[in-house]
NADPH-dependent F420 reductase (Nonomuraea maheshkhaliensis), 217 residues
Amino acid sequence: MTDVNGLSIAILGGTGDQGKGLARRFALAGHPVLIGSRSAQRAQEAADSIGAGATGDENAAVAARADIVIVAVPYEGHKALLESLRGELAGKIVVDCVNPLGFDKQGAYALPVEEGSAAQQAAAVLPDSRVVAAFHHVSAVLLMDPAVDKVDLDVLVLGDDREATDLVRALAEAIPGVRGVYGGRLRNAHQIEALTANIISVNRRYKAHAGLRITDI
Ligand SMILES: NC(=O)c1ccc[n+]([C@@H]2O[C@H](COP(=O)([O-])OP(=O)(O)OC[C@H]3O[C@@H](n4cnc5c(N)ncnc54)[C@H](OP(=O)(O)O)[C@@H]3O)[C@@H](O)[C@H]2O)c1
């Protein structure tokens, strides 16, 4: 497995549930974690709430400083934010966990994305970055819960750059209980993002925080 020890991780939109949850687990695993936000003050408050050495700053500042950058903003703000950070993100591994979903009375449903998926949109907007799709199905509630020692799921990692997907698989395994599994090329990210709508339905029906496991590997 690729060695990810000591790599710093920035999280764009790290003030939200998913960003803070991932930040907490990576900080606990010993990674330098940089929380990003549109507001340096909100970022600092989120970093303080996580502890474990996490720091906070504006999205552009943390994107420029970190080795790996995770995108954890709502789909609505995804494209514009990445367009604004093209320079800072050049040459970096950018990990997209964004699920383009709508919600109505029937629950969650997948939104159409012109580029095919949020991850492909990121790749289109960031031609000089190494875009990887991962962490779509991991529950922010479990990531944040101090009573949860192990998060019981496989994280599917997709991308067109094998070295980058191997690195993100190893990073996923910094979270106790998680296994990182290669899940295909970026052109197949749509199904992974859309599947989150099904998992949300499972969670509502069974009052759970469900995760996926891939068998026989
Ligand atoms: N929640 C989960 O369990 C979960 C699981 C897997 C994947 N995801 C994905 O992770 C992403 C974040 O989820 P979340 O629940 O953490 O969302 P969230 O709390 O609604 O948003 C996260 C952060 O994004 C920033 N933000 C909001 N609108 C923005 C915009 N228009 N442009 C730039 N930044 C904006 C905000 O930070 P500032 O105001 O501080 O800038 C906010 O705190 C989503 O795409 C979601 O599909 C979530």
